[in-house]
Amino acid sequence: MLTISQVSEQTGLTPYTIRYYEKIGVLQEPQRKNGGARIYDDSEVSYIQCLNKLKKLGLSLEEITEFTREGCVIDKIQHGEKLSAVKPTLHKRIEILENHLKGLEAKRQEIESHISLALEKLNLYQELIEENIEK
């Protein structure tokens, strides 16, 4: 069992973020010691690492909440649950990721447009300097 500080070190999330995920329902409340300190087992740490990966993908907390609503599908399958039982969850996750990818693609096109414009300006300014040097 790990403390919130140890989980923070392992996951890269601050204790504040872990408590916040708990508060908004992205993360279930963990067990507590007699003094009230949170303690986490390995499966909870793995789940928090999964949440962190989803956040690094750029998913919003709302998307992460929806994505993880049914818990860890892989764990369910590994513990004997039939694929047919988790299929709706998989479809929902696919939908979330496809929509997110569309948004990322739009951002990429916007960034490529900005890069193109910056390169045009850079070339123009370099040409102006070169013309001035030659005169």
UniProtKB/TrEMBL annotation:
<keyword id="KW-0175">Coiled coil</keyword>
<dbReference type="Pfam" id="PF13411">
    <property type="entry name" value="MerR_1"/>
</dbReference>
<feature type="coiled-coil region">
    <location>
        <begin position="94"/>
        <end position="121"/>
    </location>
</feature>
<dbReference type="InterPro" id="IPR009061">
    <property type="entry name" value="DNA-bd_dom_put_sf"/>
</dbReference>
<dbReference type="InterPro" id="IPR047057">
    <property type="entry name" value="MerR_fam"/>
</dbReference>
<feature type="domain" description="HTH merR-type">
    <location>
        <begin position="1"/>
        <end position="70"/>
    </location>
</feature>
<protein>
    <submittedName>
        <fullName>HTH-type transcriptional regulator YyaN</fullName>
    </submittedName>
</protein>
<dbReference type="InterPro" id="IPR000551">
    <property type="entry name" value="MerR-type_HTH_dom"/>
</dbReference>
<keyword id="KW-0238">DNA-binding</keyword>
